[in-house]
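Figure caption, in words: inputs first, then the predicted bound structure.
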Amino acid sequence: MAHDYRILIDGKLVKPVRGGTMEIINPADNTVVAVVPKCSEEDVELAVAAARRAQPGWKGTYIGARSELLIRLAAILREHQDELVPLETMQYGGPISKTSRFDIPFAPAELEYMAGLGRSMTGHTISADPDARVMTVREPIGVVGLITPWNFPLVTAVSKLAPALICGNTVLLKPPSCAPLTVLKLGEYAVEAGFPPGVVNILAGPGSTVGEAIVRHPGVDKINFTGDSFVGKRILELASQKVMPVGAELGGKNPMIVLDDANLDGAVEGAAYAAFFNSGQNCGSPSRFYVEAGIYDRFVEKFVAAAGRITVGNPMDPDTMMGPLAYNACRDNAERHIARAKEQGARILLGGERPNTPQTKDGAFVMPTIFEVYDNSIDLMQEEIFAPVVGVMKVGSADEAVERANDSRYGLCASIWTNDYRKGMLLVDRLKVGTAWINQHLAIVSETPWGGQKESGWTKENSILVLDEYTYQKHVWIHLSETPNTFWKEQIALD
Ligand code: NDP
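Bound structure (NDP present):
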């Protein structure tokens, strides 16, 4: 029997007030895998009220007790790992080799990491005035709205939920409409773990209605959003009406720079993995390659050969390396970009088509696609495609590579491949990005901060820095004598 998915409001698993539903489609074959609740503004209203009621109690709960609940939730997630892995794969196409190794195990690990890290949270003491004790006291922001994308549905949600909760916030979490299943399951586990009513609220429904209602609501104190830069701008626009802070993890168009002295095989392995892992649907994937002339021909030949060996197919097959894109519109967008790149003078070296096999004929598949590019201003090198479609360009020097890498409205991450670490480090200094790797790409773990610059946003996710996203540091000044220091002491002195 089909699972009865519910939303979570005020500690109860319920159906939306208006009873709406949405179908969840498996992008591998376009069949319906589940029917889930579709919320409306009324549900947002109820969830905000519950979160507001719960906030003082949760803020006032000893952090060790909050931590224990996070750890309990992690344990329940682990118990259900085998059930969650195929669910994650079916709803957005991430191959099971990825969801079983990364998406699902990473979620409890993130909860446990934050459960420990949060307990070490401190404020500052400030030696400003010997007549005073001055400090900052960290407080939760209040009620936070967490709006998440589909490319790692559970992990992205937990990466926001865990720090928000350990810091003492109550939350409204809205997963993506195409892939909410594992986050809705998380709601069931939050009830089982014993979170007090109203601390965790989970609402599924369209960003344009439910998402915007969360952003607009006067009872929501902060939004933390991961998604497209265009949507991020809309959220910022709405938030400006309330002067509300927004954490923004937005799009990317990430460069990979390969210098003449790089280890060729290492660079090729890094390129093929980082560009095509998860069908290139990673905010950190490289999609622009700037390769120095001396190594260019050998790199391109090997990169094309390596990408050609990627097995594309049914994401439920453990040997599949690349599954479909998340839904048909993503495939159609990739195909539009492939056609546009050809029109704009790029030369196709690999792919550009759908795979031609019986098991992929009904799905949202695109083969790994590599173009040789002669003009850095074409759409392929400037627009985020979020698909396995990349451009490779020959450059005359490391300086030219960095210049071209920075010639983008995005600034999420970049990598430099060289055996000259001094040169690499000096180039890193010139890259306008949030993360720069040398001889690595897509290394992202809980302990390392993640977030961009420019139109990629400014927030930090993961690491100890994430605690600043979910707390407010209140300045507290305690004067040590009974009379204050003022400039008017003599003028207004009382007898
Ligand atoms: P979207 O921006 O389309 O959606 C993200 C979330 O925002 C979804 O829950 C969506 O709901 C919601 N949303 C959409 N419109 C609104 C709105 N007007 N108001 C409030 N919420 C809204 O992104 P995708 O899900 O397509 O994810 C891919 C994007 O995410 C890429 O651009 C990628 O680069 C970026 N990303 C960035 C990361 C980073 O760390 N910088 C990490 C991962 C992804 P609904 O699903 O109902 O539309």
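The domain at 7-250+457-476 is CATH 3.40.605.10 (Aldehyde Dehydrogenase; Chain A, domain 1).
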